[in-house]
Amino acid sequence: MGGAEPTVCDLLTLLAGRRTAVLTGAGISTDSGIPDYRGPDSPPSNPMTIAQFTGDPVFRQRYWARNHLGWRHLAGAAPNAGHTALAALEASGVVTGVITQNVDLLHTRAGSRRVIDLHGSYAAVVCLRCGTTMSRASLAEQLEELNPGFIGRTGPLGPIVVAPDADAVVTDTASFRYLDCRACGGILKPDIVYFGESVPKDRVVQAYAVVDEAEALLVAGSSLTVFSGYRFVRHAAARGMPVAIVNRGPTRGDGLADVKFDGGCSAALTVLAAEFGAVSVR
């Protein structure tokens, strides 16, 4: 891709008349107030690994203390123009489905119907031993009973920094009391894929189906650093499908992209929806 920097017009030209699968990452949700892991303006981030979470009670205590604040931030976030544009494009038959690396559920809230939550959801909790599941809201009530006043002591919700996995930056975690599974005593874990974990095979199969039913792949807001998302770009390119990427900053898939637009998702996707005649689902 030499010459002038690609524009939104280049995206339109590439995708026009093609049913498009969409892969999204944290960059699509920054306009909803959820920071990116790796964007150019993102704070340094060192997400907890599954080995740390399962292997050390201190890590679990720290995680649940931070998540006790952070999950509320995700629950209170609203879909932005990028999310609603994709929902409209799906409703109009342009988009075959959305594969998202995000756990914030904003695509579903925006009205997208076929969403593969590749890395799970912040809103559910699962026991690693017996498989019991519960809502994050239900667990929050129990944690609040164990830690009365914790939220007030750690400061108001507004100024805290929250990562895309609902991990908030909180320093006072030593006194926080967390819960194990009340059914079997096993470790409770947010129903999200941690760094070091594999995406469940059934989700991967569903995601490949979204790509295989399409005639092009659009990546929106992902650096494609982790293989869980990058594999779909490789798959599409190997099938000879056009690949378009919208992201602030470089991505791992730039060399496979027919068009790489360096910019924000909301504006670019809104233009795509308008130009392709998408009808709002809201």
Automatic annotation (TrEMBL):
It is an enzyme of class 2 (transferase). Its cofactor is Zn(2+). Its main location: cytoplasm. GO terms for cellular component: cytoplasm. NAD(+) binds at residues 25-45, 101-104, 221-223, 247-249, 265. It comes from the Bacteria. InterPro entries: DHS-like_NAD/FAD-binding_dom (IPR029035), NAD-dep_sirtuin_deacylases (IPR050134), Sirtuin (IPR003000), Sirtuin_cat_small_dom_sf (IPR026591), Sirtuin_class_II (IPR026587), Ssirtuin_cat_dom (IPR026590). GO terms for molecular function: histone deacetylase activity, NAD-dependent; NAD+ binding; zinc ion binding. Residues 1-282 form the Deacetylase sirtuin-type domain. Gene3D superfamilies: SIR2/SIRT2 'Small Domain, TPP-binding domain. Zn(2+) binds at C127, C130, C181, C184. The keyword Metal-binding applies. PROSITE patterns: SIRTUIN. Its EC number is 2.3.1.286. HAMAP family: Sirtuin_ClassII. NAD-dependent protein deacetylase which modulates the activities of several enzymes which are inactive in their acetylated form. Belongs to the sirtuin family. Class II subfamily. This is NAD-dependent protein deacetylase. The lineage of its organism: Bacteria, Bacillati, Actinomycetota, Actinomycetes, Mycobacteriales. The gene is cobB_2.
